[in-house]
Amino acid sequence: QSALTQPASVSGSPGQSITISCTGSSSDIGGYDYVSWYQQHPGKVPKLLLYDVNNRPSGVSNRFSGSKSGNTAALTISGLQAEDEADYYCSSYSRSNTRYLFGTGTKVTVL
Amino acid sequence: EVRLVESGGGLVKPGGSLRLSCAASGFSFNNAWMSWVRQAPGKRLEWVGLIKSKTDGGSTNYAAPVEGRFSISRDDSKNTVYLQMNSLKSEDTAFYYCTTEYCNNDRCYPPGFDPWGQGTLVTVSS
């Protein structure tokens, strides 16, 4: 498997909550709690939002939360804001030859 | 301030070679596991490879698409990590980012990567 699967786009209105899924396999997401999430605004460097499924680095808003069930991880953004409009990527450790996998990416649009 | 600065990108012909550098500052580089991540314009992030710290053996791991063509090395005396890219293909065209594992309270959390460099663009075209 070369990439984790994410929906291409998700949208929501300000104040709503949205969830982005990230599906892998038992060799990556399903086998380990080593899932991270990133936010990337156009032309900018990726920003780490969550690590180890649901842990936030210092300075990241608590509106971002994560979960995992089986081979699928999820990122939830609550209280959606205009500044949340960006691309989001999941990442997982993999026991395949490719040690770390990224997701296909999800574009979040704030309506 | 923690900082990563990549250099060495540019235009190269298919089959050619290029070496990228990443200069680190503001953290304990010699203890850090360093990774390269690339992103083709308008496309997704793709992990390229990593090099462990010398204290952890200094070994390397690579993604399948670059295995055998790319190699990562480090010079701890210069706080610099390198990405040597050989037999370049058009599909290697991308921004190449240097990054390291996010660490907190002496524990690191891959694949949480933070910080990231600003990236350097590699274009493979005839």
**Oligomeric state, counting identical vs distinct chains:** heterodimer
Distance between the termini of chain B: 40 Å
User: What is the arithmetic mean of pLDDT of chain B?
Assistant: 96
Question: What general form of chain B does the structure show?
Answer: globular
Q: Choose one word for the global shape of chain A.
A: globular
User: Which structural class matches the secondary elements of chain B?
Assistant: mainly beta
What is the number of strand segments of chain A?
Answer: 9
- Measured by DSSP, the beta-strand proportion of chain A falls in 35-45%
Radius of gyration of chain A, CA atoms, in whole angstroms: 13 Å
Low-confidence parts of chain B lasting 5 or more residues at pLDDT below 50? none
Q: What is the C-alpha radius of gyration of chain B, as a whole number of Å?
A: 14 Å
Count all strands of chain B and give the number.
Answer: 11
* Mean pLDDT figure of chain A: 96
The topology string of helices and strands of chain A comes to EEEEEEEEE
Strand content of chain B: over 45%
Distinct helical segment count of chain B: 0
What does this structure look like?
The complex is a heterodimer of chains A (111) and B (126). By secondary structure, chain A is mainly beta. In chain A, 0% of the residues lie in helices and 43% in strands. Chain A contains no helices and nine strands. Chain A is globular and about 40 Å long. Chain A starts with 8 loop residues before the first strand and ends with a strand. The mean pLDDT of chain A is 96. By secondary structure, chain B is mainly β. In chain B, 0% of the residues lie in helices and 56% in strands. Chain B contains no helices and eleven strands. In chain B, strands 2, 4, 5, 6, 9, 10 and 11 form a seven-stranded mixed sheet that branches. A four-stranded antiparallel sheet of chain B has the order 1-3-8-7, with no helix packed on it. In chain B, a hairpin with a 5-residue loop joins β4 and β5 (45-51). The model of chain B has no long low-confidence stretch (mean pLDDT 96). Chains A and B meet through β3, β4, β7 and β8 of A and β5, β9 and β10 of B.
